[in-house]
Amino acid sequence: MKKNFGDVIDNKVYEFRVLAHLSQKELAEKVGVSKQTIFVMEKGNYVPTLLLAFRIASFFHVDITDIFSYKMEGKANDN
User: Fold this and answer.
1) 1-47, pLDDT tens digit by residue?
2) Is residue 79 part of a domain?
3) pLDDT at 33
4) Structural contact between residues 1 and 78, judged by C-beta atoms closer than 8 angstroms
5) Considering only CA atoms, which of 18, 29, 62, 68 is closest in space to residue 48?
6) What does DSSP assign to residue 4?
7) Out of 7-11, 41-45, 63-67, 70-74, least confident range
8) How many domains does one find in the chain?
9) How many other C-beta atoms can be found within 10 angstroms of the C-beta atom of residue 15?
10) Is 41 a domain residue?
11) Are strands 68-72 and 7-11 parallel, antiparallel or unpaired?
């Protein structure tokens, strides 16, 4: 049974993309994913791979922690 640790990865992809005046499609093309991937990531419904997270941070010339943050919202449980 998989444990639910309540871990969350928040991101600021939307904010960085808008400040750079890029569409979701343009950013997707720059980092090698689909527009849908950017869309669901911005909505918080998709946690990118570590490789993609680094690729996005590198594209914006910032540290990965400027865009992505980790939060542990509780103790481990069996649900």
Assistant:
1) 667 778 889 999 999 999 999 999 999 999 999 999 999 999 999 99
2) no
3) 98
4) yes
5) 68
6) B
7) 70-74
8) 1
9) 11
10) yes
11) antiparallel
